[in-house]
Amino acid sequence: MNPKQILCVEDEAAIILPLRYALEREGWTVHWANTGTQALAMSALQTFDFIILDVGLPDINGFEVCKQLRKKDHTPLLFLTARDDEIDRVVGLEIGADDYCSKPFSAREIVARIKAIWRRMESHAQPVTTSIEIPETDVTLQSATWSCNPQSLQIQYHGQMLQLTRYEYRLLFLLIQHPEQVFSRQQLMDHIWEHPEHSLERTVDTHIKSLRQKLKQITPDDPIRTHRGFGYSLMKLD
């Protein structure tokens, strides 16, 4: 079996050297780029099994590099960031990252995260034995609490327009369509995310947290219910 090919995009040698050592101990081949431009050039010439991408590169922002990479393929990707900022994490996941890790980190943690993502991808490749049917609609939904317009991709909550990202909109609209129905994280990802096989279930949790923050800016009530160990549902409101 050919060794896994890992692309590490990081400009600090003090970070990449111990990380590279840990990755190579797993039998993986490590390729190092210290700029976003170099990473894009390397990915155009070779297919990688995993990409570790620093957000703060000296030439191109890591988010922009990720956007460019996603135009070509959906190689699993993990962001490294010096900031533990919720907005950064949401943006990173929104544009196609599979995971993120804040500095400082241990090389063993990165190895464990890579293996977890690969295991999840392999499980998605297996036949699915159970599924749910979730009918879609382009009909405007209207109630005293919610107003949803699929044509304009807008949702109002208690008469106030919500500023939602693409996946926040899809997630909330699905829950509004099916009040009181409990969805597992996997069901939500399969229905909403364009490439669920390259994402982590924590992506759902991050988007739910962001949605709750936006809803609470309008009213302190939280209509989203958490079902521990399973997933989420939306309370049935008038």
UniProtKB/TrEMBL annotation:
Transcription is among the record's keywords: no
Keywords linked to the UniProt accession: DNA-binding, Phosphoprotein
A Pfam match: Response_reg
DNA-binding region: 138-236
GO annotations of cellular component type: cytosol; protein-DNA complex
Positions of the OmpR/PhoB-type domain: 138-236
Biological process (GO), any one: regulation of DNA-templated transcription
Highest taxon, organism lineage: Bacteria
Every Response regulatory domain range: 5-118
Presence of the UniProt keyword Phosphoprotein in the record: yes
Any one GO molecular function term: phosphorelay response regulator activity
Positions bearing 4-aspartylphosphate: D54
PANTHER family: REGULATOR OF RPOS, TRANSCRIPTIONAL REGULATORY PROTEIN CREB
NCBIfam families reported for this sequence: PRK11083.1
Protein name: Two-component system response regulator CreB
